[in-house]
Amino acid sequence: MVFRGRLHDRPVLLSVKDTSVSLAVGDDWIGAWDVGGRLYSLWKGGHTYRRGLNGRILHKWREDGRGVRDPYDARQRVHVEGEGANALVQEAADVLRGALVAVTGDPSTWLDAAGRRLDAAVLASFERCARFDAAAAREDARRFARVFSPVGILPPDQYLSIVLQATEGCSFGTCTFCALYHERYRVKSTDEFLRHAEAVRDFLGDSVRLRGRSVFLGAANALAVPMPRILEFFEVIAAVFDAPGRPVHAFVDGFTGARKTAVDYAALREKGLRRVYVGLESGHDPLLAFVRKPAARDQAVEAVRAIKAGGVSVGVIVMIGLGGERFAAGHVRDTIAAVNDMRLGPDDLLFFSDLVEVPGTAYPQRAADEDVRPLALDARLAQFAAVRAGLVFEGRPPHLARYDVREFVY
């Protein structure tokens, strides 16, 4: 339902959905909250602010894109934290409160397309969102930190999933380009995972209606856990969220993924596993060794084939620019061969993720020490195009998409 009115002589839209509510003021301000009352998106003057459950906000905007060969180069990104993030939450709450004053002052003027007035239930939804101000956001972020360990990364299609952390840290932690997992690797007991899942459910509350389309089983490599424990985790998910078969997604590395069989993946599919994400990064074994990736090319291919043979779809991640000029030719040639050997189909995803050199990781220093020069923009674009051009799929292809790790918040 969409209700129209005016605020300070500006047109206003109040929108109500099953999962969220939003307020639009004029043509340059839109705020959106989930039905649990948490602000999750703000747009004003061409700038987008996306708030994660942890209180961090991703601020995105575009510079003048004229003459930019890659649209990603025109996109600017800054993460806003602490009081800077809470000030944006307060702004959204204040604007919504002003709209509610206008609504309650003259409710007869706020009508939907069918001429119906705002009823008490709809009004209560907006009033709940208006209470999510800076103070509420601070407390909400503190609650998040009591329930979750840091959430390192998710695939783009899982940004609104329910994250359940069966493990902490990464089971190998050797990749030189990664700075996402700092905790010691640890697998939770079934009882501990049960308490965690219950705490996540209670923390989300009604927000689960926006974020609950699927479960992401974390952290970095949850499917490395032995099968008996994983099956227990799936039973916990079904019990706590009262949804047997709720779609579950997870990461796995090629080395561990290849150690599970198609029968294992079929058993997990029966419990709800729907997609497994494999960071191939490259099909060029010398490059994988250079970045200290635990799996060789053939292991990643074997893992993907086993997953698909078990009736589970895959999301494969390829890195553009990894290995710079030295490894470029082998990276393109062998990555094309590896992806083609995986036999991806229409239910699968293939992500292209540009290398982001993170200060403090081993990759920039090792590249400098060994004179591995980064690819210039033209070379990076050419590498992306060359990999795509070399892919051959039988029947309908997988969905291909860019994957920018800088745009992740949870």
Your description of this structure?
- The protein is of the alpha/beta class.
- It has 2 domains: 139 residues, no CATH class; 260 residues, Aldolase class I (TIM Barrel, Alpha-Beta Barrel).
- Helices cover 39% and strands 22% of the residues.
- The chain contains 13 helices and 17 strands.
- It has an 8-stranded antiparallel sheet, covered by helices on one side. The chain has a 7-stranded parallel sheet with strand order 9-12-13-14-15-16-17. A two-stranded antiparallel sheet has the order 10-11.
- The protein is globular.
- The chain starts with a strand and ends in an 8-residue tail after the last strand.
- The model has no long low-confidence stretch (mean pLDDT 93).
Task: List key phrases describing it.
single chain; 410 residues; alpha/beta; TIM Barrel; 2 domains; 8-stranded antiparallel β-sheet; 13 helices; 17 strands; 22% strand; globular
